[in-house]
């Protein structure tokens, strides 16, 4: 374990500190090159953009760029550790944007006093980028922040921990339930955690057919029910009219557990209470709500997923955010709407049901992968994700009127 810690630190420190850098896309060797790149040549695109802001997509990197913006108030499942401490995660997101979707992401950490100050900061720089990916911002502020920024920005704004996590969770859940022979509309769901990811996951599952009355959400005080006082608006949405109060109460006979809370909060004895053939998504990062080894010891009929890459079934927003932005930016969508999110769910689901390319098996160091309990969702390095998810998202943007384009760009046709 210490060895892994050192490896992780060395990975980040050597040979140069950090995980990303900037590269030039144009020659900059001769005096002529510099005259074009900088003064006087640069004045020409300046005039074009001043006359028509859309010209920025033609003459600058705007259309291929995403800002990854955090204030460090909910870094993974680690908590509120401040803006600067979130930088490795935000650089990590930039690494993933580039590696999986060819997008140039810039990580930005914002220090602020009030929520409005954060909103103003992001709104004031948004035009620089093709899209804004909000990351690791705690609830309940994240809801207000995202809603205000969607209103104020001309480019798509997407809170990854809400919607990226929700899209991947919904895709994995629908596939897992299909394998277990259950219907989303009939299952009882326990959601441990009531933060950004929890609320968004449950909302998207409801849009996909889950029944709100069969969802039990828990925060640190236990089950969120209708007789609790002074619930914030986002918890009110999932206040259940029930006498059940504890995790054990709601886990008895439950079909699904979704953990988006913190490490080791699901005891083995509680897992044992679930209905036959349960689905357990323990998605807290980096440490899940229950260790897969322990879960499998307790029962052999479950489908288990975590947010980590070192276990089967990684339910992590990396399967979504690079591709949803790729699709959205490719058709210059103004927003990322529900139609685009559902299109991403369907595309991710479908890929895992098809034969897996050899390069994915090699990269995962696995001999074979077939749709089943150990493989409910594609691997992040599957090249089909970029082609298929981005295309589905782009098409949904066109069909739903979120894009100003009339047809898909040629590389999708
Ligand atoms: O970074 C990850 O692995 C997933 C994520 O967004 C989070 O846990 O906040
Ligand atoms: Mg996150």
UniProtKB/TrEMBL annotation:
Divalent metal cations. Prefers magnesium or manganese. The keyword Disulfide bond does not apply. InterPro entries: Aminoacid_DH-like_N_sf (IPR046346), Malate_Decarboxylase (IPR051674), Malic_enzyme_CS (IPR015884), Malic_N_dom (IPR012301), Malic_N_dom_sf (IPR037062), Malic_NAD-bd (IPR012302), Malic_NAD-bd_bact_type (IPR045213), Malic_OxRdtase (IPR001891). SMART domains: malic, Malic_M. GO terms for molecular function: malate dehydrogenase (decarboxylating) (NADP+) activity; metal ion binding; NAD binding. Residues 162-398 form the Malic enzyme NAD-binding domain. It catalyses: (S)-malate + NADP(+) = pyruvate + CO2 + NADPH; oxaloacetate + H(+) = pyruvate + CO2. It holds the Pfam family malic. Residues 17-150 form the Malic enzyme N-terminal domain. Its cofactor is Mn(2+); Mg(2+). Keywords: Metal-binding, Oxidoreductase. It comes from the Bacteria. (S)-malate binds at residues 285, 316. The active site is at residues 38, 93. Coiled coil: none annotated. A divalent metal cation binds at residues 135-136, 161. Its EC number is 1.1.1.40. Transmembrane segments: none annotated. Belongs to the malic enzymes family. PANTHER family: NADP-DEPENDENT MALIC ENZYME (PTHR43237:SF4). This is NADP-dependent malic enzyme. The lineage of its organism: Bacteria, Pseudomonadati, Pseudomonadota, Gammaproteobacteria, Alteromonadales.
């Amino acid at each position: 374990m210490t060895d892994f810690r050192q490896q992780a630190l060395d990975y980040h420190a050597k040979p140069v500190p950090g995980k990303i850098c900037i590269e030039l896309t144009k020659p900059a060797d001769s005096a002529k090159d510099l005259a074009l790149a900088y003064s006087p040549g640069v004045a020409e695109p300046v005039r074009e953009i001043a006359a028509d802001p859309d010209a920025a997509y033609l003459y600058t990197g705007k259309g291929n760029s995403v800002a990854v913006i955090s204030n460090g108030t909910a870094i993974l499942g680690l908590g509120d550790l401040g803006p600067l401490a979130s930088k490795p995660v935000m650089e990590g997101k930039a690494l993933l944007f580039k590696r999986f979707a060819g997008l140039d992401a810039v990580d930005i950490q914002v220090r602020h006093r009030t929520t409005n100050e954060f909103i103003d900061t992001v709104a004031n720089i948004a035009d620089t980028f093709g899209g804004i990916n909000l990351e690791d911002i705690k609830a309940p502020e994240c809801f207000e922040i995202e809603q205000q920024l969607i209103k104020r920005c001309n480019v798509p704004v997407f809170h990854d921990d809400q919607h990226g996590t929700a899209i991947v969770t919904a895709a994995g859940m629908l596939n897992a339930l299909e394998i277990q022979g259950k219907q989303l509309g009939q299952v009882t769901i326990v959601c441990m955690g009531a933060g950004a990811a929890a609320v968004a996951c449950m909302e998207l599952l409801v849009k996909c057919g889950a029944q709100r009355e069969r969802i039990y959400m828990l925060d640190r005080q236990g089950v969120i029910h209708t007789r609790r006082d002074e619930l914030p608006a986002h918890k009110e949405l999932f206040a259940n009219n029930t006498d059940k109060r504890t995790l054990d109460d709601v886990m008895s006979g439950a079909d699904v557990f979704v953990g988006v809370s913190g490490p080791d909060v699901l005891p083995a004895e509680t897992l044992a209470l679930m209905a036959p053939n349960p689905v357990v998504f323990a998605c807290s990062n980096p440490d899940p709500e229950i260790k897969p080894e322990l879960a499998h010891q307790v029962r052999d009929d479950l489908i288990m997923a975590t947010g980590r890459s070192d276990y089967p079934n990684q339910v992590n927003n990396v399967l979504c955010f690079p591709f949803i932005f790729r699709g959205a930016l490719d058709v210059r969508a103004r927003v990322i709407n529900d139609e685009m999110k559902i299109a991403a769910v369907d595309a991710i689901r479908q890929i895992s049901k098809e034969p897996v390319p050899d390069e994915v098996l090699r990269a995962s160091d696995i001999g074979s992968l077939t749709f089943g309990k150990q493989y409910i969702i594609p691997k992040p390095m599957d090249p089909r994700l970029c082609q298929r998810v981005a295309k589905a998202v782009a098409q949904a943007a066109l069909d739903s009127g979120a894009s100003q384009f009339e047809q898909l760009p040629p590389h999708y046709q």
